[in-house]
Amino acid sequence: MKTKRILFALLLSIGLFAASCSNDDNDGETIVPIQGKYNLSQTGTIIDGKEVLIDAPQNQTGCSRDYLDLRLSNAAVIGDYNGSDCALTETTGTYARSHNDLTISVGNVSSTSDIMNLTNKELKLKDKTTGIITVYTR
C-alpha cells in the first residue's frame, strides 16, 4: 500500500511538472530560427476578416521564384528574376528580429512586418504599414 502511495505521488509530481513547463513562456513567439532562404509564394491582404491570398504576381512567368534570403550575419538578400532571360537582380540590406517583428532595411528604406507564421516550411509576414501579407516557402 505504501509503494502505491509513493508511486501515485511520483506520478502526480511528474504530471504537475510537465503541466507547469507546457505554458507558453515565449508569449506566442515562435522559436524556429528565421535564418534561411525563402521563395516568394503568395501575396494578399485581409478582407472582411479573412485572408485573401493569390499567387505572387511579382514572380516572372517561366523563371525561378523571387526570394528572400535571411543570413546569419543579419544580411537580407532580396532576389528578383525579371525579363525573358530571367535576369537575377540581388539587393542586399539588413534585417532585425524583435519578438514577432521583422524589420528589413535596404539603404534608407525600412519596413517592419508582423511574423504571422514561421515554420520550417513557411514564413508569413504582414506589413505593419500597408497590411499586405507576403507568404514565403522553403
Brief digest:
The protein has 138 residues and is mainly beta. It has one helix at 2-21; strands spanning 36-47, 50-55, 67-70, 75-82, 87-98, 101-106, 109-118, 122-127, 133-137.
Write up what this structure looks like.
The protein is mainly β. The protein contains one helix and nine strands. It has an eight-stranded antiparallel beta barrel. Strand 1 (36-47) and strand 2 (50-55) form a beta hairpin. The N and C termini lie far apart (56 Å). Mean pLDDT is 85; it is low at 2-26.
SSE blueprint:
Elements: H1 2-21, E1 36-47, E2 50-55, E3 67-70, E4 75-82, E5 87-98, E6 101-106, E7 109-118, E8 122-127, E9 133-137
Antiparallel strand pairs: 1-2, 1-3, 1-9, 3-4, 4-5, 5-6, 6-7, 7-8, 8-9
State the share of residues found in helices, binned by percent.
Answer: 10-25%
Query: What is the radius of gyration computed over CA atoms, rounded to a whole number of angstroms?
Result: 22 Å
Can you list the strand order of the major beta sheet?
A: 1-3-4-5-6-7-8-9
The biggest sheet amounts to: 8 strands, antiparallel, barrel
Distance between the termini: 56 Å
Structural class: mainly beta
* CA-based shape: globular
Low-pLDDT ranges: 2-26
Number of DSSP helices?
1
Strand content: over 45%
Average predicted local confidence, pLDDT: 85
Protein name: Lipocalin family protein
Domain Lipocalin-like: 34-125
Organism: Flavobacterium azizsancarii
Keywords: Signal
